[in-house]
Amino acid sequence: MSDKDLLQTAEKWVLEAENAQQPWDQKGFKVPGGSGLNNMNIGRLFQILTAQVSADYRHNYPAPIAALRCLFNGTTVSSMDAALKIETREFSALTRDPVARNMIRTGFLNRGKTTREEVMSEQGAQQLKQRCEQAYIQQGLQMVAEGISPIIIENVAHAAGMAEGPLAMAEEMPDENSSHQNAADVEIVKQRLMCAQALAAAVSWEAGADPVRADLASTLGWGFPGYTGGVMSYIDTMGLNAFIALCDELNAQTGAGFSPSDWLRERAREDDRVYPSTA
Questions:
Q1: In this structure, are residues 202 and 260 in contact, taking their beta carbons and an 8 Å threshold?
Q2: Count of Cβ atoms closer than 10 Å to residue 3 Cβ
Q3: Average pLDDT over the chain, rounded to whole?
Q4: What 3 state SS string does the chain have?
Q5: pLDDT digit string (tens) for 159-217?
Q6: Quick one: pLDDT band at residue 74, thresholds 50, 70, 90?
Q7: 136-170 confidence digits (pLDDT tens)
Q8: Is the pTM of this model over 0.85?
Q9: Poorest-pLDDT segment among 14-18, 21-25, 271-275
Q10: Which domains occur in the chain, in start order?
């Protein structure tokens, strides 16, 4: 059957059918299983799933929560068309989120052009890994010296998406009760751990490192969080000027060595992005 005949046959079937609607478009359609969302058990199930997904992905990946919202909100409307509009809205929001952009650029497009072994065999990647790991570990140890709880430091690193905490990486876990513990702002702890690595990577960038290879090396080489797209994408998402401002603020608050180079400041004046806007 030709394409033209196929289309005409399909049109004739639709027009002559007694009911061309899909089951979910028919009046009175219910979600399979027989229980609406007003059912207490169904509502509790969505609560449990949301909490479980949030814990599994540490609130760093928006897509799993968006999928649950599609299911929850989509099953409360009266038609599949309305449900698909909800899905489209959620998907559209995800595509505009920097997490999607960064993961696609590093985890799919650039990752598909190479292998972990190839990336990490490069001398520049090994130097970057060593530099960033040292900055990460040093920042963790310095916070311990400031009286911040080792458990808080490790938990914040885990929540930020790091594969391993700085103290575990250093194989140096101080006794929780060995020193006076000071109150800690977990957001500042997270910023210190992440910015320490990013600032170390910026030194390699200044020395000529390719941001694409740096992103790949960081996500494949030592477990920098994948949702960021890598250590350079972390800076790019924030914007160079905002990143420098944050480093200056952390330096003023802690004196912990967050001092961007003159080269990075000049680069920020020329262009706020690490990557072109189309990347």
A1: yes
A2: 7
A3: 89
A4: CCHHHHHHHHHHHHHHCCCCCCHHHCCCCCCCCCCCCCCHHHHHHHHHHHHHHHHHHCCCCHHHHHHHHHHHHHCCCCCHHHHHHHHHHHHHHHHHCHHHHHHHHHHHHHHHHCCHHHHHCCHHHHHHHHHHHHHHHHHHHHHHHCCECHHHHHHHHHHCCCCCCHHHHCCCCCCCCCCCCECCCHHHHHHHHHHHHHHHHHHHHHCCCCHHHHHHHHHHHCCCCHHHCCHHHHHHHHCHHHHHHHHHHHHHHHCCCCCCCHHHHHHHHHCCCCCCCCC
A5: 999 999 999 998 866 666 555 567 789 999 999 999 999 999 999 999 999 999 999 99
A6: confident
A7: 999 999 999 999 999 999 999 999 999 999 999 98
A8: no
A9: 21-25
A10: 15-96 (no CATH), 103-270 (1.10.1040.50)
Q: Which two tokens stand for residue 5?
A: 């005949």
Q: What is the CA radius of gyration of the chain?
A: 25
CA–CA separation, 210 vs 35, rounded Å? 55
Paired strand residues for 148: 182
